[in-house]
Amino acid sequence: MPRSNRPRRNAPGPRPGSGGGKWAEPVPELDLERARAGIARRESAPDGDWMVRTMTAKKAEKQYICPGCSTAILPGIAHLVVWSDNHLFGQAAGLAERRHWHTNCWNTRTYRYR
Fold first, then answer.
1. Contacts of range 30-38, beta carbons closer than 8 Å, 24 or more positions apart
2. How far apart are CA 35 and CA 109, in angstroms?
């Protein structure tokens, strides 16, 4: 007689998904805010190649000055962290010279040299 794949009503031991047995470890909850903000993206523009990372409001803990508008980015305000991808002295130097921009200031910046 073929075996049935239907579980028995009075099966001894823990059932799958009931919190016991071999796979009883809880699955960690996905932190969407961390997933969205953790990856830097590359942007090409007439003024060079840039690495841009989103800083969420939850992670923004310090005050910065935006180079686009010269006003403060207060703690708790979502913004962008931007650094040069093709810095003259290498990637480490570009990362060391990263700047924090308001999202709107970065998106509407002009490519003229100041």
1. 33/58, 33/59
2. 27
Phi, psi dihedral angles at 81 (to 5 degrees)? -110, 125
Task: Let me know if 62 is exposed, middle or buried by CB neighbors in 10 A (0-12, 13-18, 19+).
Answer: exposed
* Per-domain residue ranges of the chain: 54-114
Q: Which one-letter DSSP state was computed for residue 74?
A: -
Return the number of other C-beta atoms located less than 10 Å from residue 56's C-beta: 16
9-33 pLDDT, tens digit each: 765 555 555 555 556 677 777 767 6
Instruction: Identify whether the C-beta of residue 104 lies closer than 8 Å to the C-beta of residue 61.
Output: no
DSSP 84: E
Against a cut of 0.70, is the pTM above it? no
Structure tokens at 24: 């009883």
User: Measured between alpha carbons, how far apart are the two ends of the chain, in Å?
Assistant: 83
